[in-house]
């Protein structure tokens, strides 16, 4: 194994980690506002990727442009999802039951995708699909760079929204202490709905990025949800920086391990990290009080 | 009395089933009943919902199959050995998984299936990978319908043993401790229930019964593929069946298995290979979670209770019900 090959996979790992970080941030938002573990997150990701592929196939426009439609659409779907489904569950069992409910949604989406688009593997073919540029001696596909850029921009936007805006303050207050937030006049139900919408919007962005450089098929979401779940547990449920760091680290490790072990075995690193975390620090490496309880 | 009639009706099914296909569907439904009842040792008593119980099913099936095919162990000895191996494996995995509660536990259980799927697909030399593993039949001389009939009885016996074990635990002090964990783990612990040990025992018992179900399935079906043995879908079926029937009731999971199992077999026959069964499973699970989280049996009981004199003051109340009563 040469040094340049190692460097190449390091770069690829960082690019992959960026996408993981964005999606894990979405998962963390759901968990933060509602204590909901959204199994259907990856299913929505694949759904968005299919929509991007469909738009490209039908109208010949760039899959990235599908974002203009899918992001608002997914935001609204997220708000509706929280209002119409999650809010109906009993407060005492919401964490457990919401897992089952979102799991059911994931199955339904997978089935519908198979129904509408069939199980055939799909791939977007673009004029710049094969192009690659050299970054410090590593060959990196342009589409991967675009995907990373998209993820990084969205994460930055999310960060600014959460830290700089009034809505972000209300959202963080809701995450930290819903009751206290209600007492100072925050409509936590509405904020929780918007939090859900934001989370689902990250899936829309991720889906467009995914459609650029990977082959998609209906059951693909199982390949994503496992690693993503592992990331948020390792990072500590409810901690966005924790999720981002865990996503980066695990993404890089996975990419580096692909060289000696191959793709399938390299994926096991997420699960090993998950089980190791449980044995050493069950609340995750960055999680606080929140993670221990759930 | 009703119990005897019910058992007789189940056991005599091979005699009055109209054709071998229906009989084989009966075996499948019965195996679902075994699995969801086994799942209920953890899900029903402790309230820890495992979506990944297919892991134990797959390990039991592959354990049995590998022992027969690679080591030449006699069929039913292999089944027992595989169950012992799974029980031993379930201890460290349970220690890791039961350190977290609620949502994290569900995540861990899903991760367990996904990682085993990866391992069994990749480890081609031993497991045969995606090409599958053929398990030699235990009774090579039997014709197909007789083979189904024999396994129908075997699954029925296993179901009986599992139900008996659940019933025994349900009435024991141990079971009471487990139910205390379900309602409020912290309070149970402060009252002196050794929560971790209790959870672990329930977890291992559940895994062992699931593995027996898996091993028996391997002997019956004779052909294993990681995609189908370590399938999230199978794990979700177990949860769906148990929830639909009612996790607090002895026969709840088996009843749910009857409904869901028949539905699944029907969908497979009518719609074949399309993804329709995924949509149907998803919608059904969502409906159960939203509208009947306690299952069919309590829903029907509540309906009947309206026409009966009011209950006495001492009865089991769940934490969720209590909270709702306080609110009123």
From TrEMBL, chain A:
BP term (GO), one: amino acid transport
Swiss-Prot/TrEMBL keywords: Amino-acid transport, Cell membrane, Membrane, Transmembrane, Transmembrane helix, Transport
Entry's transmembrane regions: 6-29, 36-53, 65-86, 98-118, 138-162, 191-212, 224-252, 259-280
InterPro entries the record matches: ABC_transp_permease (IPR001851), BCAA_transport_permease (IPR052157)
Cellular component GO terms, alphabetical: plasma membrane
Similarity-based family: Belongs to the binding-protein-dependent transport system permease family. LivHM subfamily.
Protein's UniProt name: Amino acid/amide ABC transporter membrane protein 1 (HAAT family)
UniProtKB/TrEMBL annotation, chain B:
GO molecular function terms attached to this record: branched-chain amino acid transmembrane transporter activity
Topological type in the membrane: Multi-pass membrane protein
Gene Ontology CC terms: plasma membrane
Main location group: membrane
InterPro entries assigned: ABC_transp_permease, LivM-like
Organism of origin: Pseudonocardia cypriaca
Superkingdom classification of source: Bacteria
Keyword Thylakoid set for record: no
Locations listed in the record: Cell membrane
Keywords: Cell membrane, Membrane, Transmembrane, Transmembrane helix
Protein name: Amino acid/amide ABC transporter membrane protein 2 (HAAT family)
TM annotation in the entry: 21-42, 54-73, 79-98, 105-123, 149-169, 196-220, 226-243, 250-267, 279-304
